[in-house]
Amino acid sequence: MASAHDLCFRYQKPLVLENVNFQIHDGESLCVIGPNGGGKSTLLKLMLGLLEPTQGELNILGKAPLKARPEVGYVPQAMRFDPLYPISALDIVLMGRLDQLKVGHYSRACREVAMTALEEVSLADLAKRPFSDLSGGQRQRVLIARALACAPKLLLLDEPTANIDLSIEEKLLDTLAQLKEKIAILLVTHDLDLIAAVGDSVLCVNRRVHRHTLPLSGEVIKEIYSGAQRIEHDRQTRHSQGDHSACQHD
Amino acid sequence: MTEFIEAVQTIPLIRYSLLAGIVSAFTFGTVGSFVVTRRISYIAAAIAHSMLGGIGAAFYFGRSYDIAWLTPMLGGLIAALLSAAIIGWVSLKASEREDTIISAIWAFGMAAGILFIHYTPGQKPNLESYIFGNILVTSGSDVTATFALGLLVLILVALFYHKLVAVCFDEEFARLRGINSGAYFLLILALTAISMVLMVRVAGIILSLALLILPAATASRFSRQLWVIILVSITLTLIYNTCGLAMSFQLNVPTGPFIVLCAAAVYGISFLIKRKRA
What we know:
The complex is a heterodimer of chains A (250) and B (278). Chain A contains nine helices and nine strands. By secondary structure, chain A is of the alpha/beta class. Chain A is globular and about 45 Å long. Helix content of chain B is 81%, strand content 0%. Chain B is built from eleven helices and no strands. Chain B has helices at residues 2-10, 12-37, 41-64, 72-92, 98-119, 127-132, 140-169, 171-176, 181-220, 226-251, 255-270. In chain B, helix 2 runs antiparallel to helix 10 and helix 9 crosses helix 11.
């Protein structure tokens, strides 16, 4: 489904991602975790073809990221958007069909696809509702529906549960757990509940990339998120793997 | 009121101004709604002020080298489109701070305009009429140009409405769906530039800017649908332009400032009414 070989990336001088190697198999759902500034979002942008690798190779669905774009659905964080922008839920979901639109209005077929996508995230009854009237969790689900309207083979999500309160999060987890059965999912998250609900395994990104199988032990979590031990984690891994970046824990 | 209706029938200048006001209401209401909801009114302001540079240059080169086709309106249009392109390019690509470039273009445009006019041979054009507007300079050809450019703006918006909305809401996602987001953002800026040029003869730079922003800002306080905001903005601008012209004629006060004060007052009053739940 996706693979990276010796992938490196830098914005300016220092490498943000260094010698990244991983392979995601068909039907596998993966959570990308790691400290802030570790390169998670950069990896996502590379996978979307929004950035070009400095070195190495990245394959999505057997193609270059740019070529794979039509088959990839992307779900950004809902909090990124202007809460006052005047637009309805349905109009947002219809953006998933933008590639089918030449000029004028969306076709009836496009509207049907968009409504089906809204039904899939159980928001069909709120289709006409302005985006600004929706709760944080509903907004995030609208964005998921928009990605589904692209009829994707792979769904990429960027911290879907960030800034959403716990009571609402449950509904979102249900939606994602159901989707996981139909479609490959790769999501960036800090949320352990989400990892448990969706991930088959975990990709830890902190300049280098390490792979962990689930469930994560408390020790591994500590290793990933506590600053001092993070370096130790890197050092040990490199040592045990002869400086290879991918490591298999447990 | 009868006096005004009589004036419209007998005085071409009043008739032209009324027509220009009615025609431009449609472009202003439409483009203004995009500008306000996309939060780029400060870019519109810079584009508007940079027009003065083009107007000044058109006077200078037109008179110095006897180029009859180089009208102030054409000069203003070129300057506005050029600044729209520069600001758009900076905002999309360059690492320079966007607000810095916007202020620089704003100041440069005005300064260049004043210098060009200073060196323009013959009778000096009245700068004030371009800054604050003067209905007495409106001509039949202005109305024709306003109509043609306005029609172009409306056709473009009708054709690309959904793509423009997508780019305004989420530029990155639109790009992922194969839309050239940068080009559409530049299109919005270009439409803004054209709209500003339309009203400059009648309302002047500063007042056109107010007419672009205030009706859409008022409308957006009460609606959460862009097309509704556009329709309300068009209606408001129509009312401001026609009633404003009539009342200013009746009261014998300058038209442009009078219209803008009305628009600003309505916007102010709209704050007293609760914004539709966000």
